[in-house]
Every structure is written in C-alpha cells, then in structure tokens.
Amino acid sequence: MAPTASLAQQAPAPHSGAPLARCAATALAAALVLGAAAAPAAYAAAPGSPSAAAKKLPDGLYGTKDPQYDGVWRQSLALLAQHTVGVRPAASGVRWLVGQQCADGAFTAYRAEPGKPCAAKAMRDTNQTAAAVQALAALGGHGDAVAKAVGWLKSVQNDDGSWSSMPGSPGDANSTSVVIGALAAAGQKPASVTSKKHKTPYDGLLTFRLGCAGKEDAHGAFTFQLKGAAPNADATAAAATGVLGKGFVVAPAGPHAPVTPPACKDGKDEKAGKVSPAQAADGGAAYLVAQLDKNGQHLLSAMPGAKPQPDVGNTADAVVALAAGGHGAEARRPLAWLQKNAANWARQSGPAAYAQLVLAAHATGSDPRSFGGTDLVTALNATGPEPAAVSGAHVQDAKDDDGGIPWWIIGVGLAFGAGLGFLLSGRKRGGR
Description:
mainly alpha; disordered C terminus
C-alpha cells in the first residue's frame, strides 16, 4: 500500500511499495510499510535537502520525519485509520491535509507553503491524491475537495485504463489500485470511469495480471509494470484488493471463501473468455498464500546480496487482500504473526505503519486496541495532534522504549541504508 516506484523522477532514491501501491516515513519505514497502501512512495531525502531536524514541521502533521516525499500519504492513512476505528481526528490535522491540495484538484507529496499556488512544474501525484480522496471522503464535509481531486484523477487516466504515479508515464498495478479505491470511496463506480479509448480501470489493472504465464508458482500473480513483467507480491496484494473495487478500508472478512489458483493449461487460463475481476482477485490471493514463508506466516523481502528478511508491510497488505476476497482463514496465520512481531517496526516507522496495521486489524475483525498487547490506536494518535474525540479503551502507550527490536528489523534498516536504490529495480523485476 504505497505511492509507487514511478515517483523516482522526484528524488534520487525510491521506496519499496508501499505502497503500494501501495508506497512512508523514514527510509526504513518506506521500505517496509507501503508497499502499500500504496503503496506509498517514500524516498530518502536528496543530498543537501533540509532534514526534519533542521526545519520546523507544520502544525497538524503526523509523524516527525521530513514529509517531503510522503507527507500527504502518511497524513491520509493516519486520518483514515483513525476514522475507521471511531477516532475523530484533530481539526488541525484535517486542515493540514485539505490545505495541501492544488487548485487543479491534485495533491503533491508535500507543499511547504500551502498558501502559495502550486507551481506548474510541481510533481502532482496520483497516489497521494487518491490517498487524500479516501481519507477526506470518509471524514465527510469535504465534498468540493474530493470532487476536484477525482476530476483530476480522471483527467490523467492512461488510454489503457490504468494510472501511473506521475501522469504521462506507463501505468502500474499499485497506482491503478489506489485510484480505484479512491473512486469507490468518492461514490463513483470505477467500471464507469473510462479512458479516451473506452477502457475502464479494471481493464487497465488486469493488464498487469500474469495469470497462467510463467512458472507454476507465479500463477495468479500481478506484475508492477508491463515492462520487465515479473510476479510481484507488493503489486499482487494491491491488485487483489483493487480489482474488487475496494480501497484501504476493507470490511471485516465474512464467511470463508476458499482460495482457488487459476486453472491453467498450456500457459493460458483454461476457461475461455475474459477473466472476471473476482477470478483475478482469487488468483492473486492464491499467489500471496503460496509466497508466505514455509510456516505460512509472512512474506519475505530481500535486498540484493542480503539474506531474505520478513517483510512486515507487505504482509499487512496481504492480510488486507485476503480479507477483501473473503479468505479469512488464510489471513489468520499472517495476522497472528503481525500481532507478535509488528509493533516495534511500526514504532520506528511512524504513522503510516500504525495506520496500516490498524486497517489490517479492521479488515480481519481484530481489535486494534489490543493487537498482540499493543494499542495501535493510542500509538497512532500519539504520532500527531491530539484527537478531537476518542472512543474505546487504551491498552498501552505508544511511547515505549525501543528495546527488544527483532534482529531482522535492525538488519533490514542497515541494508536499506546501504542500498536504497536497489529496491526500485528489484520491484520492477518482480524482486519479491
């Protein structure tokens, strides 16, 4: 769940989905969180750019890290997660997000001077815009801002029905998925939003489906982009949710639906005719389950030359994707793993990470206020301005010490610092 890799044009170093498309805070947070929702995009700060410590962050902003590449993304996820669990966000937090919108309806990742018009060359971003739409539509009372943002998103749809993070670039699965979620949140019917060549968002998203192509263990997967197409867990988690017309907030999984891989014959789908969105989502879910570690607990991510490590963010995205398809049974084991292992990761990563876990808990009908002994809601609230109203009990304060951090979180952080740029190339190659 994160802004997507095509945002590399904005900064020298890209994020890991997160995501996806999902795609975000510090470099470590970006690498692990967003994968995803968006997928979001997050990046290391450009050489010579001011650090968070060197400049005062605006009032109302969630998180303490430099918001240059993920401000709108993390703010949107934080506000949306709060609303989902019955917290009324601080007015200053909502006001900050609304103030980031450009006159044409788009959002950039961060505007340091929202009182000034967006420059023509400002990097407008579909991921940040779609995340803001989902948050503002849920909060209510921002119909004009939502309508303008949706209008802008429609204006930059690619001819094949897809979206890229940056308008004018080839589409990708993560960006297309997060925009579908935004359209649905705004009360639109995604299937009725067509490009100049009469292609729908679902048409665009299905172009990234590998289906029965390639090796058997990749059947049902989605690729991030068509160029260098390869199975990608980050893109598959985003697409398996988006192709069902769902966004970041997924209703708790209902009756168990079995995960069914696509029926393949000679490298093609056995059933004649066009694959339905439901079939595509089911195939994607089957791929995700097959990619879990040998104990069926988590997805893996590896830096080039490094030992594979548990990928917390993509595992959370996979849990949401499985819940979206009604695969509650398959979501239980990775959910249990998150409950035991994700708290320290979120504490280091910031508001978007806490939000991602809150939404995973919500999608599975779990209690985010008692998530493996951690109150995710209190922890999320502590990363920003004090909420206007809070319902529910609190189990644990967010400001615990950093003791007991699993070795693999530290290892990933060190590896990330040594080679952030490899993540984008790995993602494009389907590196996980």
